[in-house]
């Protein structure tokens, strides 16, 4: 680092065009620039990315960002590139061999490289990194390290070895959903001393609502009423792909004037990109989506986030509602709950973890690359845990099986408890906001607008009118003229 | 609008009783196998080759199931038949398709055109920062190159692109032009997906795909025929990709041109003779200037042609049975390939 202390505000303005820091950003940036390993929490949408993006342009060496979701990574890189940052790239499984080699070869030319944890296990990547000056090693969504976290990713546990191999660059772990327990776990897993910069994770501009219903029909009526009253940028989350399509079709029939589309992981890449960008450009009013449309989405004027199904845990709920109101203005979260809805997340848990016979089959397979009978999440789970166990080579096959089953059951317990916590939150008559954030922080801040339905907010009294006009040109000549600024 | 249903029936009537039901699927996807490449020549389906590269098997099967449930189609073990009376008149609306010749670069051309449109639209409003809607790195690179080369005359570039595109689209059907333009993205405007257009026009997603491909082929033909009128769009067509033979066949061709015999190639490449022969048939199908005289003498060629004129079948076994036993399948296939090529080149050279 240069010996002249850079004026951070000036740097922020030149590189990102923001005139001042938001709460917490400067403190975190100063901490990492000062070489302190840092664990920081800030609410969703508060601007955690700047906390490593700015250091990456100030530092001489490389900044690596580990990110759990490929789509999130790709979106961030696209956005940065579109803002004129050239020395940024992503290393992930979407690249073909040639592209990957090219990036690895030129790794020292970049300021900022987003990486999937899997990619950081590859010898070619590790060896190259050993010969490069890595200044900052960022773990975004760091709760993925923790066994107690909702999104535990075994690959994250291997980061420690890598960091040690790199002669300890400064580490920055970021999260918007890390309880004190999870924070402990993160620090323990990385086995370094970390300075904690813990900001409250609650979102003061979101009003929380839970609407109970007796059955799906009543739920659909609730949805209809809310959509009718609120004509503004809206996301509706579902836990099944099929339901996104079904409800989006239904809403289109009910609201022919609104622009509505669905988005899920089963769509092809080009369609996903188009729909996402249409939504970002306010060409769509309502998007019916699964959690595949989530973390990467940074649209500032989303006013309403509806959960048609309950998410599998409170952290996902916080992440997903966190898409709303990123401009700081008022926004609303509405979770629609029918008794028995928890059956879906319970089913998903069952399908995510390997069953006894799958564990046995996995271990009896000698070629571990023909695992078609397992879903990807099951594979990942088995691969990591059996690898850890086999490091002890005097362990018998039977006891490996038993240990894997024990791991599986432990994981299942954590997940089931998360769903039960979610249901408990849904049913509480206490302040929703307080209960939502109580495991993260001792005090919840006062809501900036209305608080929640327990505190007297009635979503049926809430109306919003459309503020933007949808373009209506459909004559191709006019469209072309407008596109290329002819005769406008 | 080009309807998938019409295209499908069109293909199936030609393939009925001769090929399996999935042969049409492979043709639409542009499978690069000797069998499929041979089929398109035998049944004169060259224009439709590879016009739907991302057609899903499940989608295709759905269409077939529908035909079966309407009792238009009967699937048997190794082939299928169509009830032509029930089906009614089958219109040939595949006019401007040119799949065999274009399938190697049409997608690339379309992507480049879309990205150039998005880029120039943004630039025309003074916007230099936007998220490209085409992810393909090679295409991005290509478009950047065009922008860079014309840095000093950006206004000219925008105007030129606009004029060329306008002129092209003016030539196709109004509805086609509309469907094409609706898919373009520009400043503050993101194009519609195929699915969304299908909803808007109340047709199937497959119809939008084929219609888009059809316009694309029309544009390519127009541009290729008048490169002077469309210099900018012409530069988006890669010049070197006009042949579509498999990589492996290309190697075989190279060796033949160096004077190797088929037996020698068999040794060098460690492939079965039958595979090498498949290559030669593929080459004979694709490469107009390829001469088959070294494998079929003039008199045998004449004999085969006469037999073909006599019998109307395209089933090899029947043809073979009619001929002298010393004439091989390989020779028959080569003659067929050349014959088809002449017919094909007539189709291809038709004006759009
Ligand atoms: N200092 C700032 N001034 C104004 N806007 C800012 C500032 N810092 C960040 N932003 C903007 O805030 C938005 C959210 O930032 P970012 O995506 O980094 O949030 P995040 O904390 O990572 O959220 P999440 O937890 O949802 O991932 C971005 O649009 C970003 O440009
Ligand atoms: Mg973030
Ligand atoms: Zn409250």
How is this structure best summarized?
The complex is a heterodimer of chains A (488) and B (352). With 488 residues, chain A is of the alpha/beta class.
Strand and helix map with partners:
The complex is a heterodimer of chains A (488) and B (352).
Chain A: H1 8-16, H2 25-33, E1 38-41, H3 50-58, E2 62-66, H4 70-82, E3 88-91, H5 97-105, E4 112-115, H6 123-130, E5 134-139, H7 154-157, H8 159-165, E6 170-175, H9 180-190, E7 195-198, E8 206-213, H10 216-229, E9 234-237, H11 241-254, E10 260-263, H12 269-280, E11 286-289, E12 304-307, H13 314-321, E13 331-338, H14 343-352, H15 356-364, H16 376-390, H17 397-427, H18 432-437, H19 476-483
Parallel strand pairs in A: 1-6, 1-7, 2-4, 2-5, 3-4, 5-6, 8-13, 9-11, 9-12, 10-11, 12-13
Chain B: H1 4-15, H2 22-29, H3 34-42, H4 57-69, E1 73-75, E2 80-82, H5 84-87, H6 99-102, H7 106-124, H8 137-149, H9 154-171, H10 174-182, H11 194-201, H12 205-225, H13 231-234, H14 247-257, H15 262-269, H16 273-286, H17 298-310, H18 316-322, H19 329-349
Antiparallel strand pairs in B: 1-2
Helix pairs in contact in B: 3-16, 7-8, 7-9, 7-12, 10-12, 11-12, 14-16, 16-19, 17-19
The structure holds adenosine-5'-triphosphate (ATP), magnesium ion and zinc ion (ZN).
Pfam family, one (chain B): HTH_40
Domain RQC (chain B): 8-81
GO biological process, one term (chain B): DNA repair
Structure description:
The complex is a heterodimer of chains A (488) and B (352). The N and C termini of chain A lie far apart (51 Å). A seven-stranded parallel β-sheet of chain A has the order 3-4-2-5-6-1-7, with helices on both faces. In chain A, strands 8-13-12-9-11-10 form a six-stranded parallel β-sheet, sandwiched between helices. The model of chain A has no long low-confidence stretch (mean pLDDT 90). With 488 residues, chain A is α/β, with parallel strands linked by helices. In chain A, helix 13 links the parallel strand 12 and strand 13. Chain A has two domains: 191 residues, P-loop containing nucleotide triphosphate hydrolases (Rossmann fold, 3-Layer(aba) Sandwich); 221 residues, no CATH class. Chain A contains 19 helices and 13 strands. Chain A is 42% helix and 13% strand. Chain B folds into three domains: 96 residues, Arc Repressor Mutant, subunit A (Orthogonal Bundle); 129 residues, no CATH class; 95 residues, ATP-dependent DNA helicase RecQ (Arc Repressor Mutant, subunit A), CATH 1.10.10.1390. Chain B has 19 helices and two strands. Chain B starts with a helix and ends with a helix. In chain B, a hairpin with a 4-residue loop joins strand 1 and strand 2. Chain B is globular. With 352 residues, chain B is mainly α. The interface between A and B is medium-sized, with 30 and 39 residues. The structure holds adenosine-5'-triphosphate, magnesium ion and zinc ion (ZN). Magnesium ion binds next to loops of chain A.
């Amino acid at each position: 680092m240069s010996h002249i202390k850079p004026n951070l505000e000036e740097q922020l303005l030149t590189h990102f065009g923001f005139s001042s820091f938001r709460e917490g950003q400067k403190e975190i940036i100063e901490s990492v620039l000062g070489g302190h390993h840092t664990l920081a929490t800030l609410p969703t949408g508060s601007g955690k990315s700047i906390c490593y993006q700015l250091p990456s342009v100030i530092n001489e060496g490389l900044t690596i960002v580990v990110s759990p979701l490929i789509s999130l990574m790709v979106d961030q890189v696209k956005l940065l590139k579109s803002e004129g940052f050239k020395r940024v790239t992503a290393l992930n499984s979407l690249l073909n061999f040639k592209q990957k080699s090219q990036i690895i070869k030129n790794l020292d030319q970049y300021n900022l490289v987003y990486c999937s944890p899997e990619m950081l296990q590859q010898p070619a990547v590790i060896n190259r990194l050993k010969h490069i000056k890595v200044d900052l090693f960022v773990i975004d969504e760091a709760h993925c390290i923790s066994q107690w976290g909702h999104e535990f990713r075994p690959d994250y546990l291997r980061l420690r070895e890598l960091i040690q191999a790199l002669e300890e660059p400064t580490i920055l772990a970021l999260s918007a959903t890390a309880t004190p327990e999870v924070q402990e776990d993160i620090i323990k897993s990385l086995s370094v001393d970390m300075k904690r910069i813990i900001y409250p994770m609650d979102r003061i501009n979101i009003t929380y609502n839970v609407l109970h219903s007796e059955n799906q029909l009543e739920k659909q009526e609730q949805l209809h009423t809310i959509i009718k009253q609120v004509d503004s940028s809206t996301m509706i989350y579902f836990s099944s792909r099929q339901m996104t399509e079904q409800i989006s079709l239904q809403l289109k029939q009910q609201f022919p004037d609104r622009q509505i589309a669905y988005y899920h992981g089963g769509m092809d890449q080009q369609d996903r990109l188009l729909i996402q960008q249409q939504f970002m450009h306010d060409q769509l009013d309502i998007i019916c989506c699964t959690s595949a449309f989530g973390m990467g989405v940074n649209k500032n004027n989303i006013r309403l986030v509806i959960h048609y199904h309950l998410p599998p845990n409170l952290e996902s709920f916080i992440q997903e509602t966190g898409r709303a109101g990123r401009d700081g203005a008022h926004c609303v979260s509405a979770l629609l709950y029918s008794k028995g809805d928890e059956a879906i997340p319970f089913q998903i848990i069952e399908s995510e973890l390997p069953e006894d016979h799958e564990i046995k089959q996995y271990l009896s397979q000698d070629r571990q690359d023909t695992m078609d009978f397992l879903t990807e999440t099951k594979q990942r789970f088995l691969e990591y845990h059996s690898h850890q166990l086999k490091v002890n080579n005097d362990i018998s096959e039977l006891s490996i099986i038993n240990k894997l089953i024990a791991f599986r059951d432990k994981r299942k317990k954590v997940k089931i408890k998360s769903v039960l916590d979610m249901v408990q939150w849904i049913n509480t008559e206490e302040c929703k906001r307080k209960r939502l954030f109580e495991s993260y922080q001792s005090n919840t801040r006062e809501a900036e607008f209305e608080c929640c339905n327990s505190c007297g907010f009635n979503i049926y009294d809430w109306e919003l009118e459309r503020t933007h006009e949808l373009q209506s040109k459909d004559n191709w000549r006019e469209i072309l003229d407008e596109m290329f600024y002819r005769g406008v | 609008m080009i309807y998938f249903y019409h295209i499908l029936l069109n293909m199936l009537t030609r393939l009925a009783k001769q090929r399996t039901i999935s042969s049409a699927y492979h043709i639409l996807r542009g499978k690069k196998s000797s069998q499929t490449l041979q089929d398109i020549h035998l049944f004169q389906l060259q224009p439709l080759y590879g016009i739907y590269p991302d057609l899903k098997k499940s989608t295709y099967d759905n269409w077939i199931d529908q035909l079966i449930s309407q009792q238009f189609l009967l699937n048997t073990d190794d082939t299928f038949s169509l009830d032509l009376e029930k089906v009614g008149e089958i219109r040939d609306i595949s006019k401007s398709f040119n799949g065999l010749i274009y399938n190697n670069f049409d997608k690339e051309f379309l992507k480049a055109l879309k990205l150039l449109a998005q880029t120039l639209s943004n630039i025309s409003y003074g916007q230099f920062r936007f998220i490209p809607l085409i992810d393909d790195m090679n295409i991005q690179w290509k478009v950047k190159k065009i922008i860079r080369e014309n840095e000093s005359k950006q206004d000219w570039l925008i105007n030129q692109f606009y004029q060329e595109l306008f002129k092209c689209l003016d030539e196709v059907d109004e509805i086609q032009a509309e469907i094409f333009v609706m898919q373009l993205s520009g400043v503050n405007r993101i194009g519609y997906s195929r699915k969304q257009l299908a909803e808007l026009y109340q047709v199937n997603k497959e119809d939008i795909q084929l219609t888009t491909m059809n316009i694309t082929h029309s544009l390519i033909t127009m541009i290729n025929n008048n490169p002077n009128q469309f210099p900018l769009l012409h530069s988006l067509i890669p010049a070197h990709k006009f042949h579509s033979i498999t990589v492996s066949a290309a190697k075989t061709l190279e060796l033949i041109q160096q004077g190797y015999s088929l037996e020698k190639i068999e040794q060098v490449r460690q492939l079965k003779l039958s595979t090498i022969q498949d290559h030669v048939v593929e080459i004979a199908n694709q490469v107009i200037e390829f001469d088959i005289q070294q494998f079929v003498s003039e008199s045998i060629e004449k004999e085969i042609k006469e037999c073909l004129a006599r019998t109307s079948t395209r089933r090899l076994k029947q043809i073979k049975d009619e001929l002298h036993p010393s004439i091989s399948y390989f020779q028959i296939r080569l003659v067929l390939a050349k014959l088809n090529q002449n017919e094909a080149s007539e189709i291809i050279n038709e004006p759009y």
